[in-house]
Design a protein that fits this description.
The chain is of the alpha+beta class. 18% of the residues lie in helices and 30% in strands. The protein has helices at 59-68, 73-77, 79-82, 149-161, and strands at residues 5-9, 13-19, 25-31, 36-40, 53-57, 88-93, 117-123, 126-129, 142-147. It starts with a strand and ends in a 15-residue tail after the last helix.
């Protein structure tokens, strides 16, 4: 198994790096805004003639690249769940300027997100499974959500902005 190092970049996101078997250094900066940077880099001992590459990827492009490369260990362990039509499990890392930062989690259905579940909130090295609606969310937390791909996308929009984009009548709970 490859040793992946994770470093929080305050105000930016998270940097994940590893060294390949042939000595190459690869990293991904997962920005809190949703885009990612795929980078190769060198340390000072590698010398000045090493080429450095940085490639900016949108959220969709990063997901596509991950799928093309075979996914992560987590994705591989969830393969059985991926076979369930209409189910999407995704992670949302909370940034300081996100709407949800500093707020109680609430109930997704209260915001028109019926059929979406916050499975856990990961804070540091610990997970808080099945958090209650009054669980307060902080910058740096990672929300693990499950639902249809459309509902997950709407939840991410709500977590960022406080609004549910494209909310349709069918998305509203009964009586609303």
């Amino acid at each position: 198994m490859v040793d992946v190092r994770r470093v929080k970049l305050p105000g930016v996101g998270v940097l994940h790096t590893f060294v390949t078997d042939d000595g190459g250094k690869v990293g991904v900066i997962a920005h809190r805004s949703g885009h990612s940077d795929l980078i190769t880099f060198s340390d000072a001992e590698d010398g000045a003639d090493v080429t450095k590459v940085s490639l900016r990827l949108s959220e969709d492009e990063a997901h596509t690249l991950a799928e093309l490369l075979g996914g992560t260990q987590i994705t591989e362990s969830l393969t059985a769940l991926d076979q369930i039509p209409g189910l999407s499990i995704d992670w949302f890392t909370v940034d300081y300027d996100d709407h949800i930062a500093g707020q109680p989690l609430g109930t997704p259905a209260d915001h028109g997100l019926v059929g979406l579940t916050v499975v856990a909130v990961v804070r540091g090295e610990s997970a808080n499974p099945a958090p209650s609606p009054d669980f307060k969310v902080f910058p740096g937390d990672t929300l693990v959500v499950a639902g249809s791909p459309e509902k997950v996308a709407k939840a991410f929009s709500f977590f960022r902005t406080g609004a549910v984009a494209g909310r349709a009548l069918a998305d509203a709970p009964p009586g609303q």
